[in-house]
Amino acid sequence: MTDFFQNGSITTLHNLSNRSLEEMERELLEFSRQRPMSLLLPSLYSELEGEALPRILDHLAQVPYLSEIVIGLDRADESQYRDALAQFTRLPQHVRVLWNDGPRLRELDAKLQERGLAPVEPGKGRNVWYCLGYILASGKGEAVALHDCDIVTYDRMLLARLFYPVANPNFSYEFCKGYYSRVASNKINGRVCRLLVTPLIRTLMKVYGHTDYLTYMDSFRYALAGEFSFRRDVINDLHIPSDWGLEIGVLSEMYRNYSTNHLCQVDIAHAYDHKHQAVSFSDDHTGLSKMSIDIAKSLFRKLATQGTVFSSEIFRSIKATYFRIALDFVETYRNDAIMNGLDFDIHREEQTVELFARNLMKAGQAFLDNPMETPFIPSWSRITSASPGFLQELQAAVEMDFEEYSR
Q1: Which residues have CB under 8 Å from 315's CB, separation 6+?
Q2: Contact 213, 306 (CB under 8 A)
């Protein structure tokens, strides 16, 4: 049971009554007659070998209201793609797997690269972007939800609550962000959100003053949640980063494209746990270290588009202010953990804050050194304008892969 408090500039939809799954799924099935639903699952092949995905598939096999499930598969060779098809196509819904490393999709990507329109680097953002293109091409879903494939605590209620705000035809929400408590194994998780994103947003408010955008970003209870849903018309004009800034980039795009009364967040799980990234104290190109740099650059870029001016001196002030605010948060979370009987390693938490503070300077320097960088993948509206038949080519390539390799 959670509180009913509304904070910030977007609507929060709480879990106040522990409503039954059966009741919600009956309503969603009725909604699906007017607003068919597609589920997008970005996945590495390695996740098919983990403990989470079999549980997720068991639950999805029982979902009655889905019209389509689209899986974006990264880092897979031919035998692994065949294995993925075998695992996913046991689901009763219409299922397609985008083999991003396969020759057909690589050829399409090369066509976009020739015109400077392809995603600039591999990663979750690129994976999601191609899946969104396929969903546009297939036309099977009017409401779309996305979640990761490493959720070890997954159940069907998470998906039902995630879809409900954008599937209900009586609601006006175009986009919904999931949130949940990040407590597992007797400790508080979610380090990047707790120790980087929230302290950095509060820092930017202190340095630049309160703005509508920063208030909006500060309204999300878990800004880095990989679970969100939206209506199909959102896809066309969406610009997203291809790196770890995906979640921040999507929230920023929603702010740019829609009034906040069309956006919401929803409590989707009492317990949530997934695969944890290593902090990677000694390598900026992996783990939470790379994630922190990408996320900081995403926020800096967004503020720059609104006329905010950055300099080396300002980044030094941001780092110092962030460090003090983040250390205060460490104390807050320590007390929260103690009161709830949870484990808390204050040394490790402060080490992580020190790493994030250093990475803010690296992100700031990268931002200053690359003023001409194009940080976003082009929108699908631009792709269809530059190459009118591309979506049909993408759909055809996915279908041919399915026909050839699912035998």
Answers
A1: 360, 361, 364, 365, 368
A2: yes
